[in-house]
């Protein structure tokens, strides 16, 4: 099992201690030689979260620019990505830090509206955007870092959302392929690892059932969404994302892979789900939880269609692929990117919500972080994230067995903590909580590889 371990850097420090049953001696003895040759350590980012320069040098707005400015109350600190960490201007400093740390790679995403301000070729190509990414890629290579490039990390061009509701329309497939074509042509001579989509499953449910950008969900949820339908839109968006992914992969393999000699895949996020009890109902609920979160995208790219449980429960609300589409989608990857952070208990939902159907309840499972008042793992700075490194091993082995032993790259794994502005820099850098989190996850990753 080939693995790329991407560390999420830049989170704040904490004094929280993490207690698990992971053997301490074996954890302390871990080093780079504990992993197979070719194992890569790196860091990861996303354009909207890092770049800044949101309105500079002809970049067009994305749905996240619109969302953070028009719905500031949905952002906990009312912040935006207008400046972020200003990587657009400070990328050389960031690359130097990565080199000094001893990293092997850097995973970043390209901002679609920075390349195509209007989202499509007819709106013009932004040469300044292309220049920026050329400079970043060249700086990485000059410092011995391999670029891992994501084409889409949720920042849909606002122009396409205004024109035809972006991923709610099949029109997006051609525009995404055109955008991918530019990126392959301009950067593919140096980029050897491409990721079409980052966490399309989280994007589809977050933006179209939970009221994140582009702020859509059903009115009955009372989440102050602009419009939407949580029972159909997440599935339709997911469907068009999968077709967009397949179109980009088909293009790369037909036009560029032979000469550029790179590889291409997709990144999917998943939690691990532990049955709340030993009952058959809860065991089945945990399986369905995986199907509706992970299998939703994994089954199509491996087998050519959605999981049977989704077909059975969602019915006509779940779109169908044509035979031709299914053939293009099946096997449309050289590797799978996997993002893992935490785990939940899963149990049988008492009854289906007939009045208000939603992607969020269609799995007929309910998830929670505690059992009989005991948390599944230590609490972190995020309410949803509890430390459960054993789930990392479980998810990797599940992927290996169910999905035909694909090449796997761990494209995200990390932990948040509580913001403490009173810490000195020295105290913040004494980040024992995060060191412990990574060490324990590396331990279980090593077990999965072995």
TrEMBL record:
Pfam families in the record: Glyco_hydro_1 (PF00232)
Record GO terms (molecular function): beta-glucosidase activity
Top-rank lineage group of the source organism: Eukaryota
PROSITE patterns: GLYCOSYL_HYDROL_F1_1, GLYCOSYL_HYDROL_F1_2
Classification via InterPro entries: GH, GH_1_N_CS, Glyco_hydro_1, Glyco_hydro_1_AS
Family listed: Belongs to the glycosyl hydrolase 1 family.
Signal sequence segment: 1-19
Name of protein: GLYCOSIDE HYDROLASE FAMILY 1 PROTEIN
Listed SUPFAM superfamilies: (Trans)glycosidases
Residues of the active site: 412
Keywords, ordered alphabetically: Glycosidase, Hydrolase, Signal
GO biological process: carbohydrate metabolic process
């Amino acid at each position: 099992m080939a693995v790329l371990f991407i560390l999420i850097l830049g989170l704040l420090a904490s004094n929280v201690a993490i207690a698990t049953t992971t053997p301490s001696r074996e954890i302390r003895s871990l080093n780079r030689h504990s992993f197979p040759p070719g194992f890569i350590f790196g860091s990861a980012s996303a354009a909207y979260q890092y770049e800044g320069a949101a309105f500079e040098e002809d970049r067009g707005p994305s749905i996240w620019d619109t969302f953070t400015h028009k719905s500031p109350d949905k952002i906990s600190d009312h912040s935006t990505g207008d400046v972020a960490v200003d990587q657009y201007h400070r990328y050389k400093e960031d690359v130097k830090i990565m080199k000094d740390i001893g990293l092997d790679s850097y995973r970043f995403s390209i901002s679609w509206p920075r390349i195509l301000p209007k989202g499509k070729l007819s709106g013009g190509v932004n040469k300044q955007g292309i220049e920026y990414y050329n400079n970043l890629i060249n700086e990485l290579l000059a410092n011995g870092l391999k670029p891992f490039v994501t084409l889409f990390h949720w920042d849909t061009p606002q122009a396409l959302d205004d024109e035809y509701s972006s991923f709610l329309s099949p029109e997006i497939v051609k525009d995404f392929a055109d955008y991918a074509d530019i990126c392959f042509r301009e950067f593919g001579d140096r980029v050897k690892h491409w990721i079409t989509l980052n966490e399309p499953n989280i994007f589809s449910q977050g933006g179209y059932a939970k009221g994140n950008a582009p702020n859509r969900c059903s009115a009955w949820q009372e989440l102050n969404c602009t419009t939407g339908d949580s029972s159909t839109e997440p599935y339709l968006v997911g469907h068009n994302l999968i077709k967009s992914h397949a179109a980009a992969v088909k293009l790369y393999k037909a036009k560029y892979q032979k000469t550029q000699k790179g590889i291409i895949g997709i990144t999917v996020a998943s939690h691990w789900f532990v049955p709340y009890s030993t009952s058959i109902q809860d065991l089945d609920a945990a399986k369905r939880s995986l199907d509706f979160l992970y299998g939703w995208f994994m089954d199509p790219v491996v087998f050519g269609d959605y999981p049977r449980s989704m077909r059975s429960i969602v019915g006509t609300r779940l779109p169908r692929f044509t035979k031709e589409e299914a053939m293009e989608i099946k096997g449309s990857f050289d590797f799978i990117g996997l993002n893992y952070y935490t785990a939940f208990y899963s149990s049988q939902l008492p009854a289906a919500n007939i009045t208000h159907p939603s992607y969020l309840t269609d799995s007929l499972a309910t998830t929670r972080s505690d059992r009989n008042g005991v948390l599944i793992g230590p609490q972190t700075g995020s309410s949803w994230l509890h430390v459960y490194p054993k789930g990392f091993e479980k998810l990797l082995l599940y992927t290996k067995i169910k999905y035909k032993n694909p090449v796997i790259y761990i494209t995200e794994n990390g932990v948040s903590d509580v913001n403490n502005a009173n810490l000195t820099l020295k105290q913040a850098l004494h980040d024992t909580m995060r060191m412990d989190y990574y060490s324990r996850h590396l331990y279980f990753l090593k077990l999965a590889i072995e």
